[in-house]
UniProtKB/TrEMBL annotation:
Residues 2-42 form the Transposase zinc-binding domain. It comes from Pseudomonas aeruginosa. This is IS91 family TnpA. InterPro entries: Zn_Tnp. The gene is tnpA.
């Protein structure tokens, strides 16, 4: 049996333990004391069906999304896009709570930290303002061209 409860199928306690272990790893080992901002990107139904039938299409789309968000964060911090280095962790969730097809990205981005030329972390005292939907629609459309 795959789970510690020795049962088949979905086990809430095993799933909760795995979720808590993953969260602990991200908090303690990956991000540390840096502020983190979560981004969630959902897709329209036609794209969900495309990603379900052709999973290899998710990677290029994720690359476009990450370039757009990294560019926006660099602009908000007042840093040149070419020299900015942003870090993110993305979890691709394929189902909703009712086990319906709902492919979407949960992205965790380090907020306000960019390496400078001497590899020291440059902390920005201001937080980026929340994004506006039309900016990302236009930016992602131009990136996908």
């Amino acid at each position: 049996m795959a789970f510690s409860c020795k049962k088949r199928g979905f086990c809430p306690s095993c799933g909760a333990r795995r979720m808590a272990e993953s969260a602990r790893h991200l908090v303690e080992e990956v991000f540390g004391p840096r502020p983190v901002r979560q981004w969630v990107l959902s897709f329209p139904y036609p794209l969900r069906f495309l990603f379900a039938s052709k999973p290899e299409a998710i990677g290029p789309v994720l690359g476009i999304v990450q370039r757009v968000i990294a560019g926006w964060l660099a602009d908000q911090a007042g840093i040149d896009r070419a020299s900015a280095q942003c870090g993110a962790v993305t979890l691709i969730q394929r189902f909703g709570s009712a086990l319906n097809l709902n492919i979407h990205f949960h992205m965790l981005w380090g907020s306000r930290d960019f390496p400078s030329k001497n590899d020291k972390v440059l902390w920005r005292p201001r937080r980026p303002r929340p994004p506006e939907g039309y900016y990302f629609f236009g930016a992602s459309h131009s990136q996908s061209q």
